[in-house]
C-alpha cells in the first residue's frame, strides 16, 4: 500500500514539474520553439493585413501599388471601419445636437471633456491608418526586401547561415524569441482589449440607462471603433517586429566581427597571427557595415514616421491625462501611465541599439593594436584604414530621416524633446480646450 502511494505521489510530482518547469530547454528544442514562434508571428501579421508577403519580401513589383487590396475583403473592411470611425468621432467631437449624438451613438454623451477625447480618437486613427496605407504601398512597390535578410531563421539558427559564432547565434536567437513572444501576445490581446474598451465606454456612461435609443446606437457603432483601433495599432506593432528583428540581425553580425577581432588580437599575443586572417577579416567587416548602412538608409523614413507618430500620440495622451484630466480620474491615470510606459520603452530601445553601435569603437582599438604589433602589406593597411574610418565616423547608427542618427545619446535627446513637446501642448492647446 505504501509503495502504491509513493508511486502515485511520484507521478503527481513529475506531472506538476512538467507543467511548472522553468528550466531552459536544450538547444535543439529551444531552436524549434523560436522557429515556431517566428512562423506564428509572421502568420499573425499577414492575417491582420500588416504585410502581404511576410518575410518573403522581394524587389519585384507584382501588383499595382494601388491595387494591393483589389480582392481582399478583410482589408476593405478595415478601410471602411477606419473611415466610418474617423468621420463619426470627428462629427461627435464638434457636435452640440442631442439628436445627432443619439443616432451616431455617442459613447461619451454628456461626459466631461468627452468631445476632446472623441476628436483625439478621430485624429489618432486617421494618422495610424494613413501610416498603415503608406507601409502597404511601399511593400507593393518592393521597397522592403531588406526585411527578408533574416528569413532563414524560420527554419533554424545555423551559425554558418547567420555568419555568427555559436555564442552570438544563441544571443540573437534569445533576443528574437523575446521580441517575437512579446509582439505575438500583444497582437493577440489588443483586439479583444479594444472590443472590451469600446463596450466599457458605453456601459460606464449613466446616460445609456436613461436613453435606450442612445444605448442601442452606441452598441451598434462599437464594432467599427474596436475594429479600426485594434487593426491600426496592430499594424504599427506588427511591422515594428519586422524592423526590430532585421536590425538586430545586422547588429549581432557586427558584434560577432568585434568578437573575432578580439580572437585575432589574442592569437597575435601567442604568435599565431597571420596576415591572411586579416585579409579575410577586413572584407567581412566592410560587407557587414555596408549591409547595415543600406538597411538603415532604406528604413530611415519609416523609422522617422515611427518615432514621430508614437511620440505625438503618447505626448498628447499624457497631456490629456495629466493636464486636461478628461472623463474621470481612473481613465486619466491609465492614459498617462500607458503613454509614459510606451515613451520610456521606445527610449530604452533606442539606448539598446545605440549601445550596440558604440561597440564599434572597440573594433577600432583592436585593429589599431593589431596594426602596431605586426607589419602589414599596403593592401591590408588600406583595408584597415577604411574600416577604422568607417567605425570611428559620426554617422554610424540608425538613420532617423535625413537629419538624425540614433546613437548613445538618443535616450536623453528623445526624453528631452518629448518634454518640450508636452510644454508646447500645455501652453498653446490647453487654454483652447478649456
TrEMBL record:
Entry coiled-coil feature ranges: none
Segments passing through the bilayer: 73-94, 114-131, 174-204, 224-249, 301-327, 333-357, 410-433
Keyword field: Membrane, Transmembrane, Transmembrane helix
Key word Transmembrane present: yes
Protein name: Odorant receptor
Organism whose genome encodes this protein: Tetranychus urticae (Two-spotted spider mite)
